[in-house]
Write a structure and sequence with these properties.
By secondary structure, this protein is an alpha/beta fold. The protein has a seven-stranded mixed beta sheet with strand order 1-7-6-5-4-2-3, with helices on both faces. A four-stranded antiparallel beta sheet has the order 8-9-11-10, covered by helices on one side. It has 13 helices and eleven strands.
Length: 350
């Protein structure tokens, strides 16, 4: 039986969070003499002398309109990486608890575990890049606090079978995190509508991918109000800058433009996936629900260097289990994709 109180670290339960000046004041004001800011402004941008809204409520209101999730169920972080780190700090006692990942998957789950001194158990995906439910069940012990799932998965591109994810949500008494960074490029639906059914569920999304705002570093987490409250308790007071909040809010008003870009990227993904298998260097192109393709090639290291010499950077995943001799290729602009295809067409392994 899921019990949130038994999962939260005792020091976090007892924590009195830092209370910023903007947290304590509610209402409208014309004169702010509470936060030791430079009241004369900035020589570059006069209006950036004030601290931002600690909870970025204007951005959350825009997200609420798009996602249909109340603001109290939304956490905003400095990229999804901050949300990942905070989940560790809320739920995992260093040196005691453990988490489970399902490689090949996003590397920050492991990096953040090591930073927080939390044991990591790796249960590999099947050769079809799906969950091994039996192995996952065997790996869970009383100190397993979090299971990390990435769907659509990075670097493989596929979506995990929904019924397998639901099986974990229904049978695991800890926290299940579903990282949906690439969900906008997928024909599969998000787990956000199921939040009310699963109190142990945290969903990660981001403005870095489909929304094209990687430089702003704005990540989203969706969960129960109790979990979001705990995450806000632990986060730094002003983790999303005023500039990032303003630009993110403006971008969120342009959902039709974003949908147009998604359509172009998906069309380009399909076009490239059809052309690549025709090239001599390519052995396989795996189906993808992301804005990238995992491509098995003949001589991954050599082809990576060949592309790099032509000024094209891809991701070499050939040392990752189940991704041997694979490159991960992000979908670029049509002209960038054409250049990449031509350089691969010219490649001859020595």
């Amino acid at each position: 039986m899921f019990n949130l109180n038994t999962l939260v670290r005792p020091n976090i339960q007892a924590l009195v969070p830092y209370s910023s000046a903007r947290d304590e004041f509610k209402g409208e004001a014309d004169v702010f003499l509470d936060a030791n800011e430079n009241s004369l402004g900035s020589p570059l941008l006069k209006w950036y002398n004030r601290y931002p809204d600690p909870l970025a409520m204007k951005v959350k209101e825009k997200i609420t309109t798009i996602k249909g999730v109340p603001a109290q169920h939304i956490f905003l972080g400095n990229g999804s990486d901050e949300a990942i780190d905070i989940i560790y700090r809320v739920f995992c006692e260093p040196g005691v608890d453990n988490v489970i990942t399902t490689p090949p998957t996003y590397g920050m789950y492991e990096v953040s575990a090591k930073i927080n001194n939390v044991k990591l158990k790796k249960i590999s995906l099947t050769p079809e890049f799906q969950l091994d439910l039996e192995a996952l069940e065997e790996a869970i012990d009383p100190f397993t606090k979090v299971i990390w799932l990435c769907s659509p998965n990075n670097p493989t591109g596929n979506t995990l079978h929904r019924e397998d994810v639901e099986m974990i949500l229904n049978n695991f008494d800890g926290i299940v995190v579903i990282d949906e960074a690439y969900i906008n490029f997928s024909r599969h639906r998000s787990f956000i509508p199921e939040l009310a059914d699963y109190p142990n569920l945290i969903i990660l999304q981001t403005l870095s991918k489909a929304w094209g705002l990687a430089a702003l570093r704005v990540g989203m987490a969706f969960a129960s109000e109790e979990i979001i409250s705990l995450m806000n308790k632990v986060k730094p007071p002003y983790n999303i800058s005023e500039a990032a909040q303003e630009l993110a809010a403006k971008a969120l008003d342009n959902i039709e433009d974003v949908n147009d870009m998604i359509r172009i990227i998906v069309e380009e993904r399909q076009r490239i996936a059809e052309i690549l298998p025709q090239l001599n260097a390519v052995e396989a192109v795996y189906p993808s629900d992301g804005n990238f393709l995992l491509v098995k090639v003949n001589g991954a290291d050599e082809l990576y260097d060949h592309l790099a010499k032509a000024g094209i950077v891809v991701r070499n995943r050939s040392k990752v289990p189940l991704c041997e001799e694979c490159l991960r290729i992000t979908i670029g602009t049509p002209s960038e994709n054409d250049k990449m295809l031509q350089i691969i067409r010219e490649f001859k392994i020595s």
